User: What shape does this take?
Amino acid sequence: QLQACGGGFLLAGGSPTLSCATSGRTGSSYTMGWFRQAPGKEREFVGGIRSSSGSTYYADSVKGRFTISRDNAKNTVYLQLNSLKPEDTAVYYCALDANGFVVRTTPGSYRYWGQGTQVTVSS
Assistant: This one.
């Protein structure tokens, strides 16, 4: 089970951090991905992190602005959104892929999903 939180109504330029806590069995190695979906658009990959190595991979649209990290002791993954823009407005989802060897970018690769947290950015 995944529980994402940390969204809300935010001003452009802000730097909130979303978190995603996992519960239950996750295995010793997995990948956690972050996706977002804006109204009327398809769900898109934002970035991901491998639980074992901590290596990350980001979509070009957020590279350099967003940062993903993890705390394995807390079974929690974080997504820090820096320099928010109105176009970052979306529902943000965390998702778990039992394959911990590579960060995959397609939603279908992830079996477990959190409920999503809304991020609304106002200019």
Notes: DSSP finds no helices and eleven strands in the chain. The longest strand covers residues 90-97.
